[in-house]
Specification:
Distance between the termini: 37 Å
Number of strands: 9
Radius of gyration: 14 Å
Helix content: under 10%
Largest sheet: 7 strands, antiparallel
Shape: globular
Order of helices and strands: EEEEEEEEE
Mean pLDDT: 90
């Protein structure tokens, strides 16, 4: 059994779960499951992906999700489907926000991130 990989981020951290934690869908070529922990006041960059879609299930906390130019309140139990090329961001409000992220697509790595805005200065 592989170990969970933890990667620190300026907004919190992500846990990358090994394939044993996900039931494989044979129709999907590539996928990855992560747990994102966004600290209170933390915010992911406003970004898009060219090669992957994401499904976010909010496990705990509340916050605000931005999809293209629209913002919505998010809270525990809600599920959001983020299709490739859709600009998106999330911000934790009041407490940490815990999100289960399942990415599917042709290419799943950090080189598939185009950042448009980032409060941590990571826009190139």
């Amino acid at each position: 059994m592989q170990e969970i990989k933890i990667i620190k981020k300026p907004w919190g951290y992500e846990q990358i779960l090994p394939p044993d934690f996900v039931s494989r869908d044979e129709e999907l070529n590539k996928w990855q499951k992560k747990i994102l922990v966004v600290y209170s006041g933390g915010q992911l960059s406003y970004q898009s992906h060219k090669y992957r879609d994401e499904r976010w299930k909010i496990l705990s906390g509340k916050g605000e999700i931005r999809l293209d130019d629209n913002s919505y309140w998010i809270y525990s139990g809600t599920i959001w489907h983020i299709i490739r090329d859709v600009k998106h961001s999330v911000k934790a409000i009041e407490s940490a926000l815990v999100i289960e992220e399942i990415s599917t697509g042709d290419k799943i790595d950090d080189n598939d991130i185009t950042r448009y805005e980032d409060i941590y200065g990571r826009v190139k």
